[in-house]
Amino acid sequence: MLYYICKRLLLMIPTLIGVMLITFVVTQFVPGGPVEKLIAQMEGYNVTGGEVAAASSLYRGDAGINAERIESLKKLYGFDKPPVERFLIMMRNYLVFDFGESYYYKRGVAELVISRLPVSMSLGLWSFFIVYGVCIPLGIKKAVNDGSRFDVITSSAILVGYAIPGFVLGIALIVLFGGGSFWNIFPLRGLVSDDWSSMSIGMKILDYLWHMVLPITAGAVGSLAVMTMLTKNSFLEEIRKQYVLTARAKGLSENQVLYKHVFRNAIIPIITGFPGYFIASFFTGSLLIETIFSLDGMGLLAYQSVLNRDYPVVLGTLYFFTLIGLVSRLLSDLSYVVVDPRISFEDIDD
């Protein structure tokens, strides 16, 4: 086991370097970088994002900015060094989690990410608990009542929810319950109200939960179908095995058969994804959900960083989230051994 873990940890190093190298190379060929954008702004062109690339031809001969000034701007952003040297410096800093400063926000990347995490954590964690809390019992009940009216109705409902994109559902919820054309029940902006700091503890909790209802509903509904059907099919596969017939023949009740024998085997493919999903829920963001409900989370930050060519944020967050993803994948693999003692990595180690 220890050998397997060490081997996986060592494999993370070239994987992480490869991801960062590919992304770094791509950023070198994307037109309209931070230097070009700053020059465009100095020249009086009100351009953002991809418009910089279209306007970049203005800087090559008749830009009005002398060569010395351009070189000083390149030095300011670190583009005066060769790409290989810049990549090595970047990776050296990333090893100690020094992600630099954002070009656009003029703040440290780590500080910027931490300021956006509460939104993404709220959306991710609540969606995580709702998906697992609803889908596992619902999937078990559907497996026990396979083919019944309950099974057909619930399957139809969750598949309809799965077919509706999250942003479409979000807009529909706003129209219905956010003061659009029908009822003005739920708030539409932010995690909390403007006067949240003056509320009592109980009112703060209620206000926070009230703000979370619509975005969490819009984000979680689409995930219910996958987890529910996975749970149902996993339990159905176990229920049809020979050991279940043997347990019933011994006179065990259906609940004893289901929860003492079937449950611990059927839950394995579901619970093994738990570590990765749980860790990812802290850091992932949804651009469309955050945009619709005016939430400044990681999804919106990532989109704005790419649009503004904010390379320190793009590369710094990519490094951190890739590292988190690799670790969560390792934890998911190790969870197989925890939930199923029959699985061992000894053969792999050999």
UniProtKB/TrEMBL annotation:
Protein name stated in the entry: Microcin C transport system permease protein
Lineage top rank: taxon: Bacteria
Pfam family, one: BPD_transp_1
UniProt record, GO biological process: microcin transport; transmembrane transport
Similarity field: Belongs to the binding-protein-dependent transport system permease family.
Main location: membrane
SUPFAM superfamilies to which the protein is assigned, alphabetical: MetI-like
Membrane association type: Multi-pass membrane protein
Organism per entry: Desulfopila aestuarii DSM 18488
